[in-house]
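Bug #77: duplicate submission created two jobs. Keeping one. Sequence:
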Amino acid sequence: MAAGTRSSATRTAPTSTRYYTCRRRHSIGRCPAPARIRADEIEPLVEQVFRERFLTDRIAEPSVSTDELDAALAAQAQAEADLHAFLTSPATDEMRRALGDEWGEEGQRTRLNRVVEAREAVTKGAQRHARRCPPCGSGRDVAESGCRGTMQLPSRRP
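Kept job's structure:
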């Protein structure tokens, strides 16, 4: 509906009454029952609903948890740190010399697999989160944005 104004004149002074009306003609044809309501009748109801819904002392609670994604990001950081430490540690070089290259390659492969698995878990966690979180489902990079979930007031509907 669009807000419109209809002026009505009396003998003493002109007055203006605002109405919300729908268009009578649309791209699909003529409306069989165009609606119209005076603004001073509907606006108090809209304001009341808005106050009840949004201007209360209720506390908003997160409706989408980021715990799973946070845990996956922490696991990824730990796996990457472990791989870096393994590759740069002087002790790794000593163990390679003592136990052979095969030991070093196996240790490196094990740690690299942990990094790959952790990154896959982050990707899956971000995708699951984005499906449940409208702001993040809009294409933002959840892992980089630091989303804390959405905040919603509990519904008062029965």
